[in-house]
Fold these 4 entries.
Entry 1:
Amino acid sequence: MALYRETPLPSVSSLTTEDPVLLVQLSDSHLFADANGALLGLKTAHSLQQVVDLACAEQPRPDLLLATGDLAQDGSVEAYQHFRRLTTPLSATARWIPGNHDQLAHMREAAVQSRLLEPVVDIGNWRITLLDSAVPHSTPGYLEDRQLQLLAQSLSEAPERHHLVCLHHHPVSVGCPWLEPIGLRNANEFWKVLDRYPQVRAVLWGHVHQAFDQQRNGVRLLASPSTCIQFAPGSEDFNVSNEAPGYRWLRLQPDGSLETGVSRLADFEFEPDYSAGNY
């Protein structure tokens, strides 16, 4: 029996295998039930709205929106409803995965009668697999056996497609010592699966609130800014940078190559209020 479906996987769009695919990634929005809720003094719904406006202006017709975890800070149904409403202007098919601040049951409630939480997407000449690395009541991530099996099945069933794999937690070091203990705890098991499949082109994640772009055995490794506060790259301890909120875009080409970039808000000023103590 299939691990994640019982019927053939339909495509989410009318794109052919000869068409490029435009993705927009939004990550770590940390929304609250209160639309005016703030994280370290930054109103997260307001900054998400600004980032969505920027993405709409720069990427007017994305094919797919990927929300890679920590959509909510308080895990409330209302926060996920805010996220759905605020991202509607992108007019794109969307998929969500949970992060360590999310509450999966409430995500499911907010995603009712939608395909937002389906973990596998065929689009253009690509397959995108979205994994749940969140562990209840835990900041670090872990991929349960069922998730690793889903990954292996998704990869093995579509050898003719190029593959992008998404999760919330970082499976490699991003160069911030304080983030090392709160990444993906079983990264070795994750890579053991991926290394068996040469059609994997890229791995994409959130969680680290900063841009990251490296290669591992020919696989592109990408992390992205938050739509709210940013973590200072290379920091020894928890530290918020003065970089602006932003998003990542990816253009997946039919031949398996990809183009990607990060875009941030202009004229953004924010002084973190560490006394709030609510991260």
Entry 2:
Amino acid sequence: MQQKLEPGVNTAMFDGVEPEVAFSTIREAGFRYIELAYNQGYVGNLDPSLFGPENAARILDLLEKYQLQTRALGCTMNLAAPDAVAQFTTRIQFATRIGATFLNACIGKREDRQTIIANLQELAPLAADSGCVICIENGGDPNYDVFAVAEEGMALLEAINSPAVAFNIDPGNTVSLRPERDAINECIHMLPGARHAHIKDVLCKEGEFFFPAIGEGVLDYQPLLRELEQRAIPCSLEIPLRMHRSSDTLPHRASQPVDPAISLEVLKRSRQQLEALLGYPL
């Protein structure tokens, strides 16, 4: 019997909201998996203590309280930074503490490609020893353009040459950074190297990019959902309501967090759309 998709929810939509509110809202919306979004440049308050044992214990308590599970950790960062290996090592340790397998990350600029490759080659054995996979993500803005399309990503995987490094695919990022490409087909071409996926829709308004409920933007996800289902690749809804990308594709965060009641309704509408596309309840 073909495995059914069980999408999780990335917490980017709860940027600036207390973690317990995010957990309770995701559970109320009917989802069972959560992906923490600790992404440089996209969410606020990324204190290093987030990756320590005290916060890990807090996350485990919340997972138990709200009967949620986690498979993935969003940890976008510049992997060419001078202390990148040390920083990302703390993320691997944190993922291990909370039970997340996939570390999803946009990883830096094209001009730093060789440094990024070298750092990932150093990090890969640590990830493998920890039972984790570093899932490099096609970027959506110029700060994370080391790869944006399938051939660029495949070349990176070949250069890194480790089973502990794979893809997290995100069609929504392709829409902004490489609009001349068919975003869904581009990500389908990445599937042989993918271990995780983000489901993100995009609404283009006056040259800027916003992230609505799934099914309310420009992307038809049905072909990709079927591929993820057939390949048993886990996924999370990534709907960063507080953030949009300007015409230069750089991210801009609103001054105030989004009301969790709005996030709940967006999740409910997204769930309904996914159920209609898949033909079964989530």
Entry 3:
Amino acid sequence: MNTKKFVLVIFVILTVLTTTVMAIAAPANEDKFLIGMSQANKGEPWRQAMNDQIAAAAAAYPELEVVFADAAQNNAKQVADVENFLQQGIDLLIISPNEAAPLTDVVAKAYDKGIPVIVLDRKVNGEKYTMWIGADNVLIGQKAGEYVAKWCKDKAITPCNVLEIRGLEGATPAKERGDGFREGIASNTDVAIIASQNADWLREKAIPVSQSMFAANPEFNVVYAHNDPMAEAAIISAENAKIDLSDKVVIGIDGLPTLDGGIKSVMDGRINVTYVYPTGGAEAIDWAVKILEKSVEPERTVVLETIEITKDNAEEMYKKFGGS
């Protein structure tokens, strides 16, 4: 063998060996995964918290890229957002639907394409999704109703009149929180819901709604708001109308551990009671990793626990959930 051929053979051998060593030394999983997160709206602080928790959890996995879309409470936009994700070639869809029925078909379309779909908080109709993660809204509503039933009985208030400020009509939590509340108050026949209006989860919309409710129903004892921002809106309306809430009860739901969240509001004596409503953001990423990287068959339903927050435990819970 002449010198040139010998050098060529040695070069080929070294190249093969180097490539083999690099392949062995390389990480076992170099895959990248694109996740689309379709949010119903970012007008609610709770939904921004969900996005933040998803982003924070995903940051621990360099192989994950999460792209966010805000539907701004517009069903047609959210459908278009999901369609856009499908065109981008997402590997997994996380969605918190604005309303159930209008988002059902596009979620089913993603699912039929073989894309895992994690539904957060609000639900869609049918069975064409991979898993649902959220809290039990009926149970939360029931706990709120039981609190009111006991409070009215302890105060010997007859009748005990409730004003209900509901979430978005067509969103499953609004129906479930309303239905659960009615189950909870059923034990006390003196409790009556004398007015119920939608404010779509939004503080700015709940201010005029609560103003009109107070004007039309001055003899009320309880304000049951389907989330904390709407409860705060009712408090603002009461203050503007010089209504004394010291002998009444204001109830919210969400219990965010933020300076403007429900737990701090309870600590400050504004909202009387709220219920922690976990966003499920971190859990969604945990399950996404299991599905995409480990081919784990997910649970069909993951129910997150709630906690009743009153003046007695508000400070403890605020610290527990990271408030500062």
Entry 4:
Amino acid sequence: MASVDLTGGAGRARARSRRRIRAVLGFVVTVLTTYLGLLAVTFFIGRVIPIDPALTILGDRAPQAAVEQLRRTMGLDQPLYYQFYLYIKNILEGDFGTSVLTSNPVMTDIARFFPATIELATVGTIIGAVVGIPLGVLAAVKRGSLADQLVRVIGLVGYSVPIFWLGLLALLVFYAKLQWVAYPGRMDVVYEYSFTPITGFFLLDALIQQQWDVLWDLFRHIILPGGLLGYFSLAYISRMTRSFMIAELSQEYIVAARAKGLSEMRIIWFHALRNAAVPLLTVIALSYAGLLEGSVLTESIFSWPGIGLYITNSLQNADMNAVLGGTIIIGSVFIGINLLSDVLYKTLDPRTRSR
């Protein structure tokens, strides 16, 4: 009998190992396939748009011979499949080309502008989570009441109203009329030459250097665009929190907890919300990725010097290297956050590991 048990145990161990290997291989294939799809989409967008990269670099009045020579140098005279190969090769080497607008390597520009977008999206996500989760819990607990209807209306407006219209309205009210916030931009011109960035995240840099006047100025600049993004994040997070909490509050363990005499506050915040926290983590991660991806209009409205404004200005100047490079970086971050949220979900919730 002992030998049978050992053999059975070894068989189960091998089966678990095979499942783990298949899971890892599936994960790697998913990442590679998704990233290859992203590269293919950006490449063919660059080829479909009727803009000649060589003519953009040299100018409209450049001699035709010089244009043709540059096209050969850039490989634009090669078949499309070979151009795609060169494109992937350069991207994997970190070469996104040179920006026509700034004359810098695109990666240098992205390293300069992307931290501003991350900072703005982070502030928006924090506002969305801090306000959205309690609103969602309130709506679930008071299901069908006036409070529930108000929360749902707030979420509906967040989903429905165009962000450019709401941004312009916010500027008119809070900047032009009430003057509660600073003018569009990331910081006052007074501090641009006295402030030394360390990490590229200005709020953190000002805090590290204890420059409280700069920190206050940065706050006055970021609060309006960050609050606007936070409102749209709040609409999504509160809606999903409400759905998760309604599902949890109908479970049998909630009935058992009430039968034991636990207070309603403890049941809601320490039992139901704790069990809803794992899917909520995924929702917050996806909301954060969405803000990183969708901040183009917000940055344009508020003159926020992030990757969205960089891509917009590059597109207006036919700088396709910068446009495609920024698109790839944002897409890569979006893919990474999605995959990370999936891994965290499976790690924190053991029930999903066997699926």
